[in-house]
Amino acid sequence: MARRLSISMPLIVALLAGCAPAVPVQDAHLNVLASPVQPVRVLQRTVIVQLPTGYKRKLAEGSRWRPVGSLPQGEVLRPVDGIFTIVGRQVHEAYLVVSGADLMGFYLPGEEHFSPLDSPLSLTFGEH
User: Fold this and answer.
1) Which stretch is the leader sequence (predicted)?
2) CB 128 within 8 A of CB 42
3) Alpha-helical runs (H) found in the chain
4) In the chain, N or C: fewer CB atoms in 10 Å?
């Protein structure tokens, strides 16, 4: 029984992953900031982001983000203390894309894509 389960489990996982929607993306060229040292921004409250794929991601209060460049959709912020990911059919490393105080979506550095949110989400940052 355990052998049958160990053989069928990878198949079940593969089928479920195949059913997950892909992250919607657009081609994006990051305009890198001239100065690599930028002030760190600290998220002032926890925000739960509903992704277009149906998955949710948590942006934790106190998480630190550093500006690294811009896209037409907004300023691109990279996490300082780790890696942030979004999930669809695959897992993608992601940076925040903000315009003013609104999260517009995510820049996917590995693919050079922008993944928009269905609607902008308000964020509150302070500087560190």
Assistant:
1) 1-22
2) yes
3) 2-19
4) N
